[in-house]
Specification:
Number of strands: 11
CATH superfamily: Metal-dependent hydrolases
Helix content: 25-40%
Radius of gyration: 17 Å
CATH architecture: Alpha-Beta Barrel
Mean pLDDT: 96
Bound molecules: zinc ion
Oligomer: single chain
Strand content: 15-25%
């Protein structure tokens, strides 16, 4: 069975906190060694189409994703089967962001690329680093109107589910949680979590590296989901 090298938490130059060099041409240059990724910008899905299309030329497959900031300031990764669904969900989230005006010199520029991957314009509003007016439960419910996976990001770190809430929510069936190292894996298991995903949360080109290895037949959303549920996502620990 083929083995794929993946990383499902990657920001582009559209995320205000991502490096200004996270452009499609840098992805084309740096993604060597990766063949399956997800584009998960903060609170927007506007770059998924462009990056997915351009990365076809180096045979990198993209799972449509987003990193949503809930009202509780918890970061949640949502992955979709279809780009169209991700884009629709992304619009709902963008429209729910609390901070419209912002100073890009202080908080970072949001750069939008055209379909060829070139600079199109500075995306001025809303501030994509702000939080949504939706709570975790509301985001969960909206996400489940689509074929999607709901996976809280870096749960023990800044803006993490456990850091901010202190305990796992009882009423939600989380598809998995994102953790960063073996110590966090043990901690998450003790809290009762069963499914895991391991990513680099790339904001800089040097973080465009494989974080997991998956043995599967095809790089589809269904295989991605199955690999998580059957615990076949093998971490490549970096730290
Ligand atoms: Zn985050
Ligand atoms: Zn992130």
């Amino acid at each position: 069975m083929p083995v794929f090298y993946a990383n499902f938490h990657i920001h582009t130059v559209l995320s205000p906190c991502a490096d200004i060099t996270m452009t499609p041409d840098i992805f084309l240059e740096y993604l060597e060694g990766l063949n399956w990724i997800s584009i998960t910008d903060h609170n927007t899905t506007k770059h998924i189409g462009v990056y997915s299309e351009l990365l076809k030329s180096i045979d990198v497959k993209v799972i449509p994703g987003i990193e949503v900031t809930s009202k509780e300031e918890v970061h949640i990764l949502v992955y979709f089967e279809k780009i169209k669904d991700a884009e629709e969900f992304g619009e709902i989230i963008e429209n729910s962001l609390t901070m419209r005006e912002y100073d890009p010199d202080k908080l970072g520029y949001q750069i939008l690329c055209d379909k060829n991957g070139n600079f199109k314009k500075i995306y001025e509003t809303p501030f994509l680093g702000s939080s949504s007016k939706f709570s975790i439960d509301e985001i969960y419910n909206i996400s489940k109107e689509y074929n999607s996976l709901f996976i809280p990001a870096h749960i023990f770190r800044f803006n993490g589910l456990i850091t901010n809430l202190g305990f796992p929510p009882e009423n939600l069936v989380l598809d998995a949680v994102e953790i960063k190292n073996k110590k966090e894996l043990e901690r998450a298991k003790k809290l009762g979590f069963k499914n895991f995903i391991f990513n680099s949360d790339a904001h800089f080109p040097e973080q465009l590296i494989p974080s997991v290895k998956i043995e599967t037949n095809a790089r589809t959303f269904e295989e991605f989901k199955k690999s998580i549920m059957e615990r076949k996502v093998m971490p490549l620990w970096q730290h």
